[in-house]
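Internal tracking record. Fields below are filled automatically when a chain is submitted to the structure queue. Please do not edit lines marked as system-generated. If the sequence contains nonstandard residues, flag them in the REMARKS field before resubmitting.
Queue: standard
Priority: normal
Entity type: single polypeptide chain
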Amino acid sequence: MADATPEGRDGLAELRARLSALEARETVPAGAGPQAPPPHRRPVRAFFSALFIVVACVFVPLSALAVWVDSEVGDTGRYVATVAPLASDPAVQDAAANRITSVVMQHIDVKSLLDEVAPQDRPRLDQLLGRVSGPLTSGIESLVHSTAEKVVRSDAFEKVWTDANRRIHASLDKALTGQGGGAVKLTNDTVAVDLAPVIDQVKQRLVDGGLTIAAKIPEVHTDFTVVRSEKVGKIRTAFRLLQLAGFWLPIVTVVLAAAGVLLALRRRRALVAAALGFAAAALVLGAALTVFRAIYLDALPASVDQQAAGTVYDTLIRFLRQTVRAVFVLGVVVALGAWLSGPGRYARRTRGVWESVLGGAGDAAHRVGLRTGPVGPWLVRHKLLVGWIVVAAAALALAFWSYPTGWVVLGLALAVVLVLAVVEFLARPD
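SYSTEM-GENERATED OUTPUT FOLLOWS
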């Protein structure tokens, strides 16, 4: 080596320099390469990443409430679908029949009724009126109540209820903001529905049944309470704000979560945390709805039918509860998908079992004569791309779904798994 030429020594030095650079590059810790941010910027990125994700999780319940409020006011079909089951609920029917009976009996004059039934015995009946009016009043009240029950349990009542709510939906916003009148109104912190059209039907049936004195009952307007609370008047501003935020707040929530994930140093872990945070926030909202139900019922006056009030509450928020379940399932699905795609030991084992089972099935099918032509090799080369396309298609379907439920989210997730399984099965080289 002592007589090596200068050119040889220079070439050997250059080769050693390249090997040293290669070894140094391979020993650099993960995340510390050219793509990693400078050390002094990492705490800042981590702080804002956590902040955005936390704020997004806080916005999840508000977004669900905003979407629910906006849909109930802005979508007539949604509102009608919400209140329609109340017409066929036994507790609500009993409460409506009792209310109608009480109002009708206030306008029936028993003495006038006796005068019409037995005019020839008027002097004697006038003397006996005090003893007879009690039992007779009870009999008339029973007749009115049974007639009212028949009306509220008929298909005609369901149709009247649905048609009336469809017509009055335009005034719902005014009702909840305390303005205007109409069949739905807000007075003394009470949201109520006027039962005058139903009372007219009861009056007509009483007349048809022989109780002609019912024809003299004037037009009666009485309210069936839908919501009663001392806080109704105070939350009207919050209701209006939620209605205005119904479209934008969910978008802001998703954008904040996405920004938090993109800023994170470990994005997959941040995505799992954000998804689980969304699921936890949905659970908090669901628990709050249950707790508020008990508080609301306890605050009602003793004269209010508790069973009917509970049914009305459950019916009005049932679509909100569907949204809660959908957000919870979506959070769990996204978190599970992000974890399974990660480098963790159990995630790798799960993927290994998946590939072994489906790959083995594909190989067995290939041996018995199944041929995919150019599809199999193409899927081998583009399997990752196809997977992302499938996930994106499911996300778009969920985004454009009018009112997704938990079952819709779960169905889309299972569809993605099924398509990916088919891709894994068909992805075979020549």
